[in-house]
Specification:
CATH superfamily of the largest domain: Type I PLP-dependent aspartate aminotransferase-like (Major domain)
Largest sheet: 7 strands, mixed
CATH architecture of the largest domain: 3-Layer(aba) Sandwich
Strand order of the largest sheet: 2-8-7-6-5-3-4
Radius of gyration: 22 Å
Shape: globular
Number of domains: 2
Number of helices: 13
CATH topology of the largest domain: Aspartate Aminotransferase, domain 2
Order of helices and strands: HHEHHEHEHEHEHEEEHHHEEHEEEH
Number of strands: 13
């Protein structure tokens, strides 16, 4: 019995084993309920709800089997991104990453350090905080203002005077949809040259508020813009994102990534998606139309809601939010509960898909909340 117990103890995953950094030991992993979603109406993660361009599917199917055995090649992708943007950028101003999440992680790895500060807003995208915690950074969050969740511009300006290492702005913000004019972002970056100002523009296509057309990275080298093909072009499952800024900043964050982080399938899909901008434009236009329609229905029904930017809105159910969330799930519709998030606790974030999809959602929501038809 003693021998058996000793053998089991040797096999046990419990300590002793190498201790991680203290920041990692106290960290809670960023996680999201991503399983069992494929047969549902996915209005929970702000994804493209219809899939990518047929050109993407054709390009992926045409990949020769032997090419799977070859390390990925990236030649020409940066130039294709620049051509799609239609801006006077150079290839060394574009970084390629395994999704924008990987770009965010690289930014903190390259620029964040123990004792330095991340400045951001609240509530906002949840991955910024664990990335800062991994580096042992202090985190200063400034809440959005009022029932309209206005951007706290003056408080951010004042906080920048204290010299934070990083300022993260999600524009439009997820989950509040708050928009900040590009001119104001440029002013913030110009006034705080010691701070790297990172603008997360994953939802920019749904508002047109991009800072890129106005940015002169030689004059404002501390500005970095993040873009993705997940929300509009439907490549969320393949993971590809871009960081655009001064060549020196792009180089530094690229140094802390692996040489082949982006797989060949994502590269092939990106080329195909970028070649079919009309498909993306049509999808974005339909989402914007559906967003306006949803706003009209919610106003007419007297449902408390907030919609401003992005392909999502917030709804405050009359009933228990968890029960409404579960009832929608039973109806085959997924939304995201904002439980515990500052300012918006008790709300549901609902992604916007096509008009037909939102009509399906609204019919189910009316029934669950006993709203008049």
């Amino acid at each position: 019995m003693t021998a058996d117990r000793t053998a089991l103890e040797r096999l046990s995953p419990e300590p002793p084993f190498p201790s991680p950094r203290p920041e990692v030991e106290s960290l809670h992993a960023y996680s999201a309920p991503l399983e069992g979603r494929r047969q549902m109406l996915r209005l929970d993660f702000n994804e493209n709800t219809i899939g990518p361009s047929p050109k993407v599917v054709e390009a992926l199917r045409a990949i020769p089997a032997d090419h799977i055995a070859i390390y990925p090649e990236y030649d020409g992708l940066k130039e294709t991104v620049i051509a799609n943007l239609g801006l006077p950028l150079k290839p060394d101003q574009v970084g390629l990453f395994n999704g924008v999440d990987a770009a965010i992680h690289a930014i903190f790895h390259a620029y964040g350090d123990r004792g330095e500060t991340l400045l951001t807003t609240s509530p906002t995208f949840g991955y910024y905080t664990p990335c800062a915690q991994m580096q042992g950074m202090a985190i200063e969050t400034i809440p959005y203002e009022g029932e309209a969740f206005a951007f706290p511009l003056e408080r951010i300006r004042n906080a920048l005077q204290r010299g934070p290492r990083l300022l993260l702005i999600c524009n439009p913000n997820n989950p509040t949809g708050t928009r900040l004019a590009p001119e104001r972002i440029l002013e913030l970056a110009a006034a705080a040259p010691q701070t790297l100002v990172v603008v997360d523009e994953l939802y920019e296509a749904f508002t047109g508020d991009s800072v890129l057309p106005l940015a002169d990275f030689s004059a404002v080298p501390n500005l970095l813009v993040l873009r993705s093909l997940a929300k509009t072009a439907g490549l969320a499952g393949l993971r590809i994102g871009f960081a655009i800024g001064h060549a020196g900043v792009v180089d530094r964050i690229s140094r802390v990534t692996g040489p082949y982080d982006i797989n060949s399938f994502a590269v092939t899909a990106a080329f195909a998606a970028l070649s079919d901008q009309a498909y993306v434009d049509d999808y974005v236009a339909e989402v914007i139309q559906a967003r306006a329609w949803m706003g009209e229905q919610l106003c007419a029904a007297g449902v408390r809601h907030h919609v401003e930017g992005g392909n999502y809105l917030l709804i405050w159910p009359k009933g228990d939010p968890a029960a409404v969330d579960q009832a929608l799930r039973e109806a085959g519709i997924l939304v995201r509960a904002m439980t515990g998030k500052p300012l918006i606790d008790g709300s549901l974030r609902v992604s916007i898909g096509t008009l037909e999809q939102m009509q399906r959602f609204w019919a189910a929501y009316q029934r669950i909340e006993a709203l008049p038809a």
